[in-house]
Amino acid sequence: MLEVKLGDDFLMSSRFTTGEIALAEHGLAAVQAAQADIVVGGLGLGYTAAAVLAHGDVHSLLVIEALDGVIDWHRKGLVPLGATLTTDPRCRLVHGDFFALTQSNDGGLDPDAPARRFHAVLVDIDHSPRHVLDSRHGAFYEAEGLRCVARHLHPGGVFALWSNELPDENFQQLLDAVFASSQAHVVRFDNPYTGGESANTIYVARVPA
Description:
Layout lengths: L2 E4 L2 E5 L4 H12 L6 E6 L5 H7 L4 E8 L2 H8 L6 H5 L4 E5 L2 H6 L14 E6 L19 H8 L2 E11 L5 H10 L2 E11 L4 E11 L3
Helix pairs in contact: 1-2, 6-7
């Protein structure tokens, strides 16, 4: 089992991957393109990215990770899914600040193609829209931040977000105000530490076609 912490923040564990995989499954289920170009914000142990690549109709995957050392884990084969991601020609691992790239007026999410748009942007970085790892991330979860990410999507494109908490009514209202449609999917799984059940939320929103 692998666990990842950032300072005192527990980020992820290979024991709990249901939510990360569900982010890819729910996000891609809403994509209408036959050959989709996907962005994943946050690499971590790679479970979301690997679940994206398991879909044959994915044309390309760009994974943006703020910590260069995490990318090195995958490139050096130090984590189980490293080879899966780094040997797939559809996948590129990019060192960058996803939030800054999203809000930049001068560039885009792909450093090699600033004007490029995508069919889906899937994000798993903070614990939830209200429990962020860095206070600078907070603006992303407000209306203007959501409008910024929507600008990087093709018409009909999908924004999906993982949260470690149950659905947040205020955040859902923001999604409804910015996007053409949105849903919150609750994903439940067994938690051996508590002996009970835990739950994540996957928010899925679509821009107008």
